[in-house]
Amino acid sequence: xxxxxxxxxxxxxRKGGKRGLILAGVLAIALAGGGFMAAxxxxxxxxSPKTPExxxxxxxxxxxxxxxxxxxxxxxxxxxxxxxxLEVRRxxxxxxxxxxxxxxxxxxxxxxxxxxxxLEQPAMLMTLxxxxxxxxxxxxxxxxxxxxxxxxxxxx
Length: 156
Prior knowledge:
52% of the residues lie in helices and 22% in strands. The protein is α+β, with helices and mostly antiparallel strands. It has 2 domains: 16-50; 59-155, Tetrahydropterin Synthase, Chain A (2-Layer Sandwich), CATH 3.30.479. A 3-stranded antiparallel sheet has the order 1-2-3. α3 (100-113) runs antiparallel to α5. The radius of gyration is 34 Å and the shape is elongated.
């Protein structure tokens, strides 16, 4: 009798497994059909990649004339050559160009204050760039300078 009971349990498990599989298949087909109909009738908007708005129309670049700095008494005969551009709005380009002597002065003072050993560290350029950008933004006025683009940073 125990064999008959075990066989009945196995049959019930097989039927339950088949039912679950059939139910999952029917549910998947129903969901796929519902999704198709929703997209077809416009309930779900069709995918269309958005074209990015051109932000380049309002950008101007103001060139910072190259700076050549001696690296101090410990680095006899060595110097740093630095050149960069400032990314600004077109409307602010003229005003930023007017304060260029002050910008050069603040960059010159900052770069002279940095220890020569630190200038040779590979990751230091990112820190220098952030520090110089902040100083330039203070001199030029808040919101006028968007970015500082380093075009030349050479230690000879």
